[in-house]
Amino acid sequence: MTVAVASKSIVAIRICLNGCVQGSGVRPAVARLATSLELAGSVRNTLAGLQIEVEGPADRLTQFQSLLMSSFSSSAFVEQIHAAEITPTQRSKFTIERDSATGPLTTQIPPDVVVCQECLKEVNDPNDRRHSYPLSTCSTCGPRFSLIQSMPFDRDQTTMDGFTLCEDCRSEYESPSDRRYHAQTIACSACGPQVWLADANGECLKAGVAAIIATARSILTGKIVALRGIGGYQLLCDATNCDAVGRLRQRKGRPAKPFAVLVASLTEAQRLAFIDDEEGDALTDMTNPIVLLRARAGDVAEAVHPGLNKLGLMLPSTPLHAKLLENVGRPLVCTSANREGEPLEFDVPDAETILAGIADLWLHHDRPIARPVDDSVVQVIAGRRVTLRLGRGLAPLPLDLPPARPQLAVGGHMKSAIAWHNGSQAALGPHLGDLDTVRTRERFAQHITDMSALYRFEPEAAVHDLHPDYFTTRHCSESDVRTLGVQHHFAHVVAGMLEHGLLDREVLGVSWDGTGFGEDGMMWGGELLAVDGTNEYRRVAHLRPFGLHGGDIAVRQPWRIAVSLLSESMADDAWIEQAASLWRGQPVASLRKMHRQTTNAVSSTSVGRLFDAAAAIILGIHAVQYEGQAAMRLESVAASSSEAGYSLPFTAGQLDWREMILSIWDDRLAGVPPAVMSARFHRALAGGIVAVAAQFPELPVVLAGGVFQNKLLTELVVELMSDDRERLKLPGKIPPNDGGLAAGQLAIAVMRERASQRSLQITE
Ligand SMILES: [Zn+2]
Ligand SMILES: [Zn+2]
């Protein structure tokens, strides 16, 4: 990008940077570099990124250009750079300037960044003026997406606007040698937001450091605290205290779903879980996600992750977390603060009202949150970081799509998240939750309005799932924009294609999940699709269908699915009595009878439900408290063995599970350990994928759908395809579950729009 300038006289250039270049200290870095080289000019954040104008002697300008990129912090990401010579204007100094914001937003919105080591060091230094200030940030760290009200990123367009700088902060902000030079979120205990501890009546008990110490003491006596974090409230309690964890479960209405745990350091994390290098990198990354890890037997109460060998750990996001952990001296449960099924609470009055009866105490701060963002969840699978929940630190996720008309993709119904294109850039938004309640639906609608304003666009079209009963589908049909319905599993595969830059290729998509509406009205979920670009897909294979009696009841009671599969696998009914005792007297015989007279069963090809049935037989589980619980427990118990898989033949376009179900049943009766049965089951499914992939030796194989959150299964596929590893495409930044669905929907609409424009041009 270096512009060659001819003479030694004064010359000037304009450099435009785009990518994630705001909110990461790029402007101060540019100003510092220019000043050190005695160059004049200006730098400003614009809606298109960052614009630098710099002038001076030609040799020093060349030096400036060669040093520019290496002067940025790691949270900055430059995607495009463009430089051109301009006319010098005899400027005498280098300044950071404001831009008047008009036109489209073409630059990325920065995600929230975990507190940096330098800020933590200051907070821990008794001689530093920010000693113990729990909301300290700098030019490279702190909240961004969650406090930006409008772009470009400048303090008066964030929720820090209400805090006037004190003299000390002002002088740091204006001093090029200071590391908070032009830090938009700069603050200190004298002028910035404050923390305080309140009781159930909203009465302030303590403020500042005293509030943190008092909070720590309460937690050690078993209390539950709602702490206002970066993107919303979190519920905290002592993770080593069974009673406290049990109380939190009971009050929140979350009987079994695992809780994440906040720990002080990587060393502390290593005491609780086995952590390899990639997992360690994920934990200490500036995106600060919850990382799912293999738990060690240790201090954390069993009730934190009942029946599972995985444990989600997270390091402190803010000095507030760090100070609290230091005072508590043990790991803390840290879970989104909401009533189960309701959206994340993020403002003070709502948190006090709605979390009454769940929290004992509230540790508030008064920095407004512009929009709620849940914590992200990632897991390392086959050496690759896979996003399971896109949230704080990772959202919004830029999507690599060409320019298109402004439009929205609304995702599915569970794990709701939207994606959008504002004409010049596309992104996938944060996890919003399941759309079963009025408040989550309101949150969903608000989020669309919020993103349209922030990204400065008016949607002209909307893409939705084919399921007629999804709230998102109905929401689109009630709007007056053009709509496009896209099949669920097709969208999952295209999200994977987008992840790997394969949108114009033909691929074999393995789209396995809990459920999705099929073109034929059946509940799909075990699909193998030949996808040709983003226009068409062909269902080349699927799981052998089975009857699903009772719909949602079957999801909660996996023994019912097992009865369906056993009925279809066995000629006689000798198994019924044994099955009834396995599932502690569930009405197996009457369900079997219903199955025989079948008229009202939905037909399903769902691999998620196949997992449920296998878990029901292998582990004797008859009821689950959340979707995916049976599958997660089945993965947890699996032995890491090289046991041969059960037989899962691929014939006539179907993966036929009947022989496998028979074998599992026989193994169960023969007393084969669940660890072995589970390993054989996982290997059978991986083998099924490989068998189908062998029929399409030329095509990349894209794994998509929530089933591939299963680390064991995914790594078995990798193992079985090790000779053919390059063509296997695993999930990554876009969640494989329904949280990534909108990205696939959007990609389909955008690519089809381009294809139709191309064909129009040809016919003209
Ligand atoms: Zn910092
Ligand atoms: Zn200050």
Q: What report would you give on this structure?
A:
The protein has 23 helices and 32 strands. It is an alpha/beta fold. The chain has 4 domains: 88 residues, Alpha-Beta Plaits (2-Layer Sandwich); 183 residues, Alpha-Beta Complex (DHBP synthase); 123 residues, Nucleotidyltransferase, domain 5 (2-Layer Sandwich); 187 residues, Nucleotidyltransferase, domain 5 (2-Layer Sandwich), CATH 3.30.420.40. It is 33% helix and 21% strand. The strands form 5 sheets. Strands 6, 7, 8, 9, 10, 11, 12, 13, 14, 15, 16 and 17 form a 12-stranded mixed β-sheet that branches. The longest helix has 23 residues. The model has no long low-confidence stretch (mean pLDDT 94). The two termini are 38 Å apart. The structure holds zinc ion (ZN) (2 copies).
Short description:
The chain has 764 residues and is α/β, with parallel strands linked by helices.
Descriptive key words:
single chain, 764 residues, alpha/beta, Alpha-Beta Plaits, DHBP synthase, Nucleotidyltransferase, domain 5, 4 domains, seven-stranded mixed beta sheet, globular, binds zinc ion
The value of Rg in angstroms is 28 Å
Helix-residue proportion: 25-40%
The tally of structural domains comes to: 4
Structural class: alpha/beta
Bound molecules: zinc ion
Q: How many E strands? A: 32
Name of the top-level CATH class of the largest domain: Alpha Beta
CATH architecture classification of the largest domain = 2-Layer Sandwich
Shape assignment: globular
- Mean pLDDT across the residues is 94
Oligomer: single chain
Could you tell me the CATH topology label of the largest domain.
Answer: Nucleotidyltransferase, domain 5
Instruction: Give the strand content.
Output: 15-25%
The CATH homologous superfamily of the largest domain is called ATPase, nucleotide binding domain
Main sheet properties: 12 strands, mixed
What is the number of helices?
Answer: 23
Model regions low in confidence, pLDDT < 50 over at least 5 residues: none
Alpha-carbon distance between the termini? Answer: 38 Å
